[in-house]
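task queued by scheduler; priority normal; single chain, no ligands, no partner chains; default sampling; output format set to structure tokens
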Amino acid sequence: MTAVVFVGPSLAGAPVAAPPGVAIEGPAAAGDVYRAARGGARVIGLADGVFEDRPTVWHKEILWALERGVRVIGAASLGALRAAECAPFGMVGIGRIFERARDGGIEDDSDLAVVHAPAELGWQPLTEARLNVRATLDAAVAAGVLSRRDGRALGVRAAETPFRRLTWAVLTEPLDAAARDRLTAWLPAGRIDLKRADALALLDAVAAAAGAPAPPPAGFRLAETRYWRAAVAWFERRGASADEEAVLDELRLDPARFERALLRAFACRAAASDPLGPSPDAAGLLDELRLRHGLGTAADFRAWLAASRAEAAALARALADEDRLAVALEGAAGALAPAVLDALRVDGRYAALAARAADKRARLAGRALAPFREAELTALVEALCARRRLSVDEDLDLAARALGLADRRALHRLLADERDYARALAGTGG
């Protein structure tokens, strides 16, 4: 996904085709802009957003996306308001509604609010936005459909009517029958829809931005506060379905495994946000995954995806994150050694491990180093996996580097020393 536009009631009515390379989503809720940027969108258009029943889009998730080089463009409704508020940080606003929001011409956020049908019914508005009403009344007066007095009276009535009740039928109740009939007959062709016009302009702007060069670096740094980290955790949590939450509950019954999975996921996310080297080959990583699980045919892979409730594109991103993490760990293993030792001291395990290491050196002193043999290394790894109930990467050089070792020969020395130490302990009853 290169570009996405969040829009609903502002484009309801006559269908609109998405420009090539642009995905259209419904009105955005809190976390949707973050997840779109996290999912790879390089351009995000924001028109409509939810409110009242669900938290609306946060300013800080927009700033998070902008800091990471994502273009964020707003128009039409909530997007126009957020663009006016976040313009100093690089969010782009377009359209007449944005200009009014920027220049103080919108008295209240409810001027843009409408009640609308759900997605299944195409987000069809059930009320009229107050800003559209004002523009339409001005046009009706200019066209001679309404008198100036009636136009002013309806403008006052629109301002006093809650947005949830603002329809043309409610608005025109005080008019005499002739004026009401005249306006009703004129509305289908004469009604001004500022929100739709700006939303259409937003689609064009997003499509153009998707093919433009990357924007310059953001001129600010987002503060990673505790509240922001909590928000990210909430955004990520909301991405799981009820069925997926049930799977997580099963994993939580093994707290140690859950913590390891959580830490690994966090590390993958950190590696993805600051990658080292070229981007991984997504197709190659998916092929490796298929081989690992014995999925020889495309049909087998599709069935496995369905059973896992997974999408190939999402898995490719996850595999790429894992690959970046492996590269990052290999490159940083030496530099991280002091931090690992400090973590052992905090946990209180350092002294016991130091004593065991000293005892091992004493018991194995004078012993000839075991020559490297590939078959013996494989057997040692298999024995370790069986004893500890774990798995090790089939590429033993990669497995060695993940442990901060130089290569498989160093891994062989580590495991052969442990085997010989166990034998020495058994021989002395230690």
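post-processing summary
- The two ends are 60 Å apart (CA to CA).
- The mean pLDDT is 82.
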